[in-house]
Amino acid sequence: MSQVLHRLRAEEATVGPRPRLMQRFAPFLPVTSSTPSLSLGEGATPLVHARNLGRQMGCPNLYLKLEGSNPTGSFKDRGMVMAVAKALEDGARAIICASTGNTSASAAAYGAAAGLEVVVVLPQGKIAAGKLLQAQVAGARVLAIEGGFDEALAVVRQLTEVPDPDHPVTLVNSVNPYRLQGQKTAAFEICEDLGGAPDYLAIPVGNAGNISAYWMGFTDYRTAGLVDTAPVMLGFQAAGAAPLVLGHTVRQPETIATAIRIGDPASGDKALRARDESGGRIESVTDEQILAAYADLARMEGIFCEPASAASVAGVRMLAAAGAIDPGATIVCVLTGHGLKDPDTAQRLAEPPLQAPADVAGVRAVLGW
Ligand code: F0G
Questions:
Q1: 334-356 pLDDT, tens per residue?
Q2: Any atom of ligand 1 within 6 Å of the Cβ of 259
């Protein structure tokens, strides 16, 4: 099987850059001859072997899927390109979403490229600076509501439930099925890069769309005979979200603004199915565990991801320490967004610059050289 995948990769190497996400994976996507072509260069993100951190965690075959390398800095672009192309195909003029920031940044960018009106509904005061600016600069209409993500999603769902002929608008949250279709392509890339499916796939869980999308991708490739196996799915929620693992809501005060803490995950059922069909688990990790993984990723691997992303590494570290992961296993942790999205959290860990005079002797003295 893996020979087929290696050949696919070798062919690409000789024909130049990878084609656009929707064309490259068209046989597995709801793309028709009337689907408009749209791309900001999404997908084809790096898979990096985390040698230093992996060794320290007792997982030498630890890999990181850098979804922050997408055009707007998060995995949302894979699903958004698909959802916006299908909205265009269906004659939409406007798109709307609720967001903790990344969906809105992506919707704003793809909506701008497609010439659509974009409305984003955000929980007031809870969006990291970078993400909010992305939507604003792209010209989206930004509404900040006095409530959390769950309330924002309820509002946009109600606004789009019954079509309004005066304001035709498409919902592009992950309840839009095209979003998960696009997002599943990351699983395809992982299989191609490794020459098969990994043993474990670890991923942060918020609304539970992405874990469901990856599971769909792995099972699509297995059903097509391109890989023989599918990974055990490990989902990690930020403590304080409604634990899928326990099935009831325990709300805690938000301590890091950008951990994704969702009270009522929209794709919760699909995620539980992914967990059960893969023999996996969904656990919760604390802010302390997330921030430790976030700092270690930057300091030991040179990878600056957004804090919510580091839940995948924090979770694997926790399970590895408990002896729940075979040390020889191939593990892929998905890092869902880029660290520059959230300068405020970075600031909390950053050392202030050393002050030095503007001459060599002074700089040497400060460095102690
Ligand atoms: N990681 C990041 C960086 C996210 O922004 C999100 C979700 C997730 C993980 C969780 O993914 O919801 O598919 O389980 N962000 C959404 C947003 C809620 O509005 O940007 P999920």
A1: 999 999 999 999 999 899 999 99
A2: no
